[in-house]
Design brief:
SET_dom; 2 helices; Beta-clip-like; 13 strands; 196 residues; mainly beta; binds S-adenosylmethionine; 3-stranded antiparallel beta sheet; globular; SET_dom_sf
Length: 196
């Protein structure tokens, strides 16, 4: 059994378990798991930017009255982050289930056979699960979700900075996509830009 990792600062003292290595749910069957991990001999790798090593981000509770996610948490730059650079991997439970009710479930891979693999950070995850959507906060995202493989070959979703550097203290903001918002609430659809 792997040791329990040390929680990063401001990790909510709640039901959410902090992990810095993906957990594979039993719904991810052998061949798919080998494909995702990148070979038979590999094991899930600790993310290189997890606390306390070199993480460039911190979790912060949002108190600004104008912020649409006030009272919740967000992800903020702990130091200046260069443009087009890796910020953090999105770590969670890798699964092949329908988890439409989760607000923390990202699509990792869709096979031609119709298998959908997701990364769900609702019950367990790392700092990346606190990244908010830019809508109502700033004009455009300053970060993007990118699918990539680790140097050891494991398929991951990561958060990367966009074309501009991110200043220390700025909130890291991505686009969840129009369909994400549409599936949750009709109130956002009028303001969602076509391109995102
Ligand atoms: C992946 S979580 C992001 C982290 C979340 N703020 C938290 O503290 O756990 C997604 C949830 O954050 C909130 N959220 C994120 N971006 C938002 C935005 N632009 N406007 C309103 N709520 C937002 C919504 O409640 C959404 O369901």
């Amino acid at each position: 059994m792997s040791p329990i990792p040390r929680q990063p600062p401001s990790w909510p003292n709640s039901h959410v378990q902090y992990i810095n290595t993906p957990r594979y749910h039993p719904s991810v069957l052998g061949p798919m798991r080998i494909f995702l991990i990148g070979g038979t001999n590999s094991a899930p790798q600790k993310t290189s930017t997890s606390f306390p090593s070199t993480s460039p981000v911190r979790i912060r509770r949002i108190s600004e009255p104008s912020h649409p996610a006030r009272g919740q948490n967000g992800l903020f730059a702990f130091r200046k982050i260069p443009s087009r650079s890796h910020i953090i991997d999105y770590i969670g439970e890798v699964h092949c289930q329908n988890r439409a009710d989760s607000d923390y479930d990202l699509s990792l891979f869709r096979s031609q056979d119709g298998d959908n693999v997701g990364v769900d950070a609702s019950a367990m995850g790392n700092e990346a699960r606190f990244v908010n959507d830019y809508r109502g906060i700033r004009g455009k995202p300053n970060a993007v979700f990118v699918e990539n493989r680790t140097p050891q070959g494991e398929l991951r979703i990561s958060i990367w900075s966009s074309t501009d550097p991110i200043k220390k203290g700025d909130e890291i903001l991505v686009s969840y996509g129009k369909s994400w918002w549409r599936s949750r609430t009709a109130q956002f659809t009028d303001t969602i830009p076509d391109s995102t």
